[in-house]
Design brief:
single chain, about 425 residues, mainly alpha, two-stranded antiparallel ribbon, 19 helices
């Protein structure tokens, strides 16, 4: 047998490297959800090590730039957005130039992982897609075990959680589910393609039970929303991307209307019924939205909410043991945060990025299995953005990129299976 070439050695090393990372991913979600961001960076190394990545991914963009191409236009939009983040630091009370990397780095690294996943040979597509699906399934299974046992694995491994009721570990496990929830849908799509629909359904069910057994209610809402959206994609595949896009853009542009939320009435009607954390969010959303007009057109600057927290008023929330701040570290709604901190330039730049991204997806004519995974992931992401996310949390962007990687792998798997 002929000796392996340098390229074949590189490709084999890349394959083993990604296999090792997929083994580590469940542990990352359980023991340190913020580790999803460095995990994604490590997963991008095989792409960065390939010359054809630089030639095709960036060469086609900048050798023949054309604003009419959705891919190039989308890249320009996100670069403008990131540059505006940097510029806003000049008037933000908490100027941090490095915040530009909180958005730009996950986009570029995530894009490289997606490119790599879309340019796989036959054997790689099978093995890596299966490894992705197994990794996500294993992650939610361990998180389910932790939820049922009250965090057994985290309790027996140092460091010990000395917080009252172990709330730090409990919250961290909930965030671990958050980091995997969007990727759950492409993982289930891959499982269905490889082993049948029932196996895909089992993957979703385990993820849902993991979300319900941990304390972050938003995770269960996100997965249920993803299931509903996936059902819509099956029922109306030709319109699914358009409907999803319209919903995302509507959520962005209508976010300031949260200023008209009847907080007192909601407290009166839902006090003692809805959890205090959810009622608190209603008050936070109303307060953040009410501040938007005075900051227009340019916004208050990146990470303004963190400074606002120091002087924000407090409010009595039904069910809470003490008064809560009208502004936590962030507004728990990414769209509100963009309006509040980055103003109209930030809103229109991110809207353009979303619009061109959706044009790419519509033009791809995705098959049903891939489409359901994509739309389910988008819905789960939307819930996270609307009720708990912050634009400066890098691990949340990495979770979205992880889901995008799963969608790309499912597409590669489908393409190779259909060709065979």
């Amino acid at each position: 047998m002929a000796p392996l070439t340098l390229r074949q050695h590189r490709d084999r090393a890349s394959l083993y490297w990604l296999f090792g990372l997929f083994v580590l991913l469940p542990l990352t979600a359980v023991f340190g959800h913020r580790g999803v961001a460095p995990w994604l960076l490590l997963a991008s190394l095989p792409a960065f090590a390939r010359g054809d990545f630089w030639q095709s991914a960036f060469g086609q963009l900048f050798d023949r730039p054309d604003i009419k191409k959705p891919l190039f236009a989308g890249l320009v939009a996100i670069i403008i957005f990131c540059c505006w983040v940097f510029l806003s630091g000049f008037w933000s009370p908490k100027a941090q130039p490095s915040l530009i990397l909180n958005v730009l780095a996950p986009v570029l690294v995530g894009g490289s992982v997606v490119w790599f996943s879309l340019n796989l040979p036959r054997v790689w597509a099978y093995r890596l897609s299966a490894a992705f699906s197994l990794s996500i399934a294993a992650g939610v299974t361990v998180l389910l075990f932790e939820g049922v046992t009250g965090g057994f694995l985290r309790s027996v491994l140092p460091p010990a959680d000395m917080t009252p009721g172990g709330w730090r570990d409990v919250t961290a496990l909930g965030r671990g589910v958050t980091s995997l929830a969007p990727a759950l849908f492409p993982a289930a799509a891959i499982a269905a393609m490889l082993r049948g629909r029932w196996i895909g359904a089992v993957v979703i069910a385990v993820g849902l039970f993991a979300a319900m057994s941990n304390t972050v209610t938003a995770n269960a809402v996100a997965i249920l929303a993803g299931l509903a959206a996936a059902g819509l994609a099956l029922a109306a595949p030709r319109r699914a991307v358009a409907i999803a896009g319209a919903a995302i853009l509507a959520a962005l542009f209508l976010a300031p209307l949260l200023a008209f939320l009847p907080v007192d009435l909601i407290f009166e009607k839902q006090g003692g019924i809805a959890p205090a954390s959810w009622l608190h969010r209603v008050a936070v959303w109303q307060a953040a939205a009410a501040q938007i007009p005075d900051g227009l057109p340019f916004g208050y600057g990146a990470d303004y909410a963190r400074i606002w927290k120091e002087t924000a008023a407090t409010i009595a929330v039904p069910g809470a043991r003490f008064e809560l701040s009208l502004m936590p570290t962030h507004p728990h709604n990414v769209f509100l945060q963009i309006w509040l901190e980055l103003g109209l330039p930030g809103v229109f730049a991110i809207a353009a990025f979303i619009f061109f991204g959706l044009r790419i997806l519509r033009g791809a004519l995705l098959p049903p299995a891939v489409l359901t995974g994509l739309i389910g992931a988008l819905a789960a992401i939307m819930v996270s953005l609307l009720i708990e996310g912050s634009i400066w949390q890098v691990w949340r962007h990495a979770a979205m990129a992880l889901a995008a990687m799963g969608v790309a792998l499912s597409y590669s798997l489908y393409r190779i299976r259909s060709n065979s």
